[in-house]
Request: fold
Amino acid sequence: MTILKTLNSLKDFLNEIIKKQNIKLQKEDTEDEFVYPYVEICYFPHKNFTPFGFSSPAILISFDGDSDGANENALDIRLICSTYGGGYYENTAIPDNKGYIDLINLMERLKIALVDRWTFGSGTLEKPINMGMYDTELAWPYWYGYMNFTMQIPATEYAINRDFEKQKEMEDFLHGI
Reply:
C-alpha cells in the first residue's frame, strides 16, 4: 500500500501546485480556452494509441517499477505530460509550436516544484530527474513529454521480519503444547 499512498500524495501535490501557480494551458480543440491540466494515476496507452477523446492538457502519474532491497525500496515514477497546441503561424498553413513550448514550460515548472518539495507521503525524491519528449509516435496538435525519477519509500523487509517473528512465536507455542 506504500506505493499507492506515495502516488496519491504525489497526485495531491501536483493538483495543489497547478492551482497555486495558476498553471492553465490551452484546452484541446479550442483556441482561447485555458484549463488546469488533468492529473491522474494512470499509464500511457500503447504505441498505436491515437489521442482522439484523450483529455489534454494532462499529467499522468505512472508507476514504472520497484526495486525492494533489504534496507531500501526504490520506486520508479514517470510523469507523462500532454499539451495541446493546434494553431498555425500567422497567415500560413504551417503548424505552430505553441503546444511544444507549453509542454517544456509545464515540465520545467513541475520539476522545480518537485525538487523544492522532495517528500511525498512516506517517499523522498532522488535526483536525477530526467525529462524527454515523445516525438516518434504522436504528432501535432498534441505534444507529449515525460519526466522520470526515483523515490525512496520504506522497505518491506521490516514487515517480512515481523512475519518471521510471528511464525517463530507460533512454532514455539506449538512445541509447548
Remarks:
- Residues 2-176 form a domain with the STM4215-like fold (CATH 3.30.2000.10).
- The chain has three helices and eight strands.
- Strands lie at 25-26, 34-35, 38-41, 58-68, 73-84, 119-120, 123-134, 142-153.
- The helical segments are 2-20, 98-117, 157-176.
